[in-house]
Amino acid sequence: ITLLTTAFDPFQAFFLSLMVNARHIFYGLAMLDKYKGLGKVKNFLIYTLCDETFSITSSVNPPENCDLKSFYFCISFLDYIYWIGGTLLGSILGTFIAFNTAGLDFALTALFVVLFIEQIRIKENRIAGCIGLGCTLLSLFLFGGNNLVIPAMGFILTLLLVRRKIICH
To answer: Of 68, 121, 134, 136, which has the most beta carbons under 10 Å away?
Structure first.
């Protein structure tokens, strides 16, 4: 919202976009095992991996005797269609309905809190969740609230990759 209400700064826009979208690196790392061996549909699954799709696919257990490729494809495809349809509907209705967006800036923070809570409830994900929380707090302490996102993501990515290498070897 700040980006839209202030003078355009290309440097700030680039880093804001990088910070907001860098979460897909972590989503992708978390889905490597689930998407392993799914063939050509894997590219589509990666392309359509968004917050909602990640939340569902990372926490759901596919039914027994279910084709994993079809299962994950349907979730991703439907989420993608819902996203496009909702955006189209919102843009059409938005021209007719005035809506005060004051106070809406909490939504992204709330989304990440809910995603964190859902992930921490799964025993296997607790270490990764604690790494994320710890790295974020460390970055907050070292870099302050205005500059913590990129260092925190760097710390998290590094520790998760080190952890993965230790576990895999």
So the answer is: 136
At 99-140, the pLDDT tens digits run 787 878 788 788 888 888 888 888 888 888 889 889 999 999
Q: How far apart, in whole angstroms, are the C-alpha atoms of residue 107 and residue 84?
A: 19
The residue to which tokens 């080190």 are assigned: 162
**Residue 136 CA: distances (Å) to CA of 95, 112, 125, 127:** 39, 13, 17, 14
CA-to-CA distance for 159 and 125, rounded, in angstroms?
A: 14
Residue 149: CB partners within 8 Å, gap ≥ 6?
A: 19, 22, 139
DSSP H or E stretch at residue 128: helix 126-143
The whole-angstrom separation of Cα 60 and Cα 35 is 13
Closest to 32 measured CA to CA, from 130, 167, 164: 164
DSSP-assigned letter for residue 57: H
Helix (H, G, I), strand (E, B) or coil at 30: helix
